[in-house]
Amino acid sequence: MMTMSTLGIKKVNRDPRTCLWGRHFLAVLVVLLLADGLLAAEEEQIDQHIANLSHHSFAMRTRAEQSLLRIGLPAQPGLIDALDHDDAETRRSARRILEHILTVSLYEQIRQFTNLGPEAVTPPLPGWTFYQEQIGRDKQSQESFINAILAEPVLLESLTQDSNYSTQVLRSRTQTLYNALIRNPGQNPGGSRGPGASTVTSSGSVMALLIVAANNDTALDEQTAQKIFQLMNYSGLTQNLMPDGATPHRRLVGHFIRRSAGTSLAYQMLWLSMQYNLNEGLVPAEMIIREKAPQPYVLQNAMLAIAKLGDQGHIPILEPYLSNDQPVNNQRGNGFQPLVRDVALATTIHLHGKNPKDFGFTHLRPNKQTLFQAGSMGFTNAQEREATFERWNAWKATQQQNKTESRGPTPSAPADK
Known about the structure:
two-stranded antiparallel sheet
């Protein structure tokens, strides 16, 4: 039996009838002791209810679900553990119950967040701390975040758990949304087939995927990254990526581009970055250019991304390719064969603020997405190529000479006395 002495509390000779402090202390102690017992009993009840989610009796399963819904937030840790349960029925029920419990609590937090501001919500909404640091906290950012958490409360809740759990939830939810939108259109995310098209049409769910994927503590495998990329297109989220579009969307996609730069998505990220002028595309572009032996056609697009999104600071990484005679596999006939060195020169000239046509790229065609049309940065014969390189080298020499002259003569060293 637990007594005050076993708790390390010494008895004090005071008459409770005349000592208000004594009565309050005893009352608080009784409440704490009872609370410990109640919490232990409640945990046992929660565990039993979760175990009954896989009971062979439908009535028992229903009663267990209703009981867990009444308990509410205190059942959250047990339900989260149940998402890894060996029994599929338990996993499905746990997710459904958890979503309901979190949604009820979430709507109250969102009401406070919207009416009183983020500071009014304690603790912060799941994912908000990371989001505001990486994406922003302006009104537009707050609205985008609310759309994401309304669409995927459990997914964003995973950011408050350990990284292994958030990784698992990201992978699982991405697969579910991928099935609903792309693999099996018309099947909703819960798995039941409805009479019409999929109900997953907003970008809120994909925004939530991107928020979790942007967290470096969450592992992002290539298959999951590929599916998220496809969902970005199918959900309509990319419509918000125009330079005058929603900034939170652009920042989130920018994080995704950086995180997937070292995967097989790098090439697709180049196109996405050039299409929407996302400077984060410089990350996969630089990685490709610095590879030991990149494919020439991939290298061409990496150089175009550097030319469109970069500046003169990127010129040095192009210089090693000015002597590379590999064809870029865009032969147009009549002897016209662009080489890697041609692409490197055209993009280098552009980064210097000059027009490659002025130096001899007479076949060059502009392109709104990629700056220059792939396959147009070349020459009909070797004489045209060498003449263009000579003009460029002469221009550089002139620029260097002008720079030297503008500095004035170098002061001579003082003579020895």
